[in-house]
Amino acid sequence: METSINSISYFRPAAVSATRHGGLDLSSSLVDDEEKLAVANKIDSEKVALGVRMILEGLGDNPDREGLLETPARVARMYQELVYGVNVDPASEITCTFTEETEELVLVKDIPFSSVCEHHMLPFVGTACIAYLPKDGKITGLSKLARVVEVASRRLQVQERMTTQIADAIETKLKARGVLVLLEAEHLCMSLRGIRKPGSKTLTTALRGEIKENTALRQEIMTLLSRP
User: What is the per-residue pLDDT for 34?
Assistant: First the structure.
């Protein structure tokens, strides 16, 4: 069975009401889920804003000039959105399962994501592909797989760990017979600084169960992933 889905509905933050910290307006676009909002609210936005102000001063600029006056608060709001997944288990996004008379391959490809590299706090942006073999017909909604990717990406991250976290989440919650996760991303820490090689891509994989053990099956999946 060949299942390839190139475009699916995936999780995006929704607007919430404004809050204020230390006189700074720290309202932001956040998820509307109460649990994730509670996690995001644990971020010390006032401390982040003060830290950004110190960075601006350290760079030799004037944080009180018009163009930078609201920058610390803006950056604090930005991080509330970018790292709301801290301490949230990606597996918690698989909130429903179904039983169908199938144990054939399920494959979702080209799920877009963006994350923040924990080494330089610059973004890395790419796509995720997920394949799994159901056990005893146990499947989940396709959007739940995209949600797993989203939550795993919304934290200070490295691509290698993110790949493993996604695979572990699917294996744990679905008890799948086999799992494959492939991430491909461009890292701005390589594109904008250091070696400065824009356009270079990093690929990481995580394999579990029968997909790891069966070379022919793994090759079949990679063939499907290579299709436009």
Answer: 52
Residue 84 phi, psi dihedral angles, 5° rounding = -65, -15
Helix 159-174 vs helix 142-153: crossing angle, to nearest 10: 140
Percent of the chain predicted with pLDDT > 70? 82
Place of tokens 């005893």: 136
User: Same structural domain for residues 94 and 167?
Assistant: yes
- pLDDT at position 19 over 80: no
What is the predicted pLDDT for the residue at 41? 58
Helices 45-58, 71-82: crossing angle, 10 deg rounding: 130
Q: Give the pLDDT of residue 14.
A: 34
Mean pLDDT check: name the lowest of 77-81, 141-145, 168-172. Answer: 77-81
- The residues annotated as belonging to the active site are 117-120, 159, 187, 189
Which backbone phi and psi does 20 adopt, to 5 degrees? -130, 140
- Position of tokens 């973004």? 123
Q: Is 190 helix (H, G, I), strand (E, B) or coil?
A: helix
Rounded CA separation 136/58 (Å): 59
Task: Give the number of domains in the chain.
Answer: 2
Of 210, 219, 218, 222, the C-alpha closest to 135 is: 210
Domain extent at residue 174 = 90-226
d(CA 154, CA 31): 11
Q: Backbone phi, then psi, for 30, in 5-degree steps?
A: -130, 170
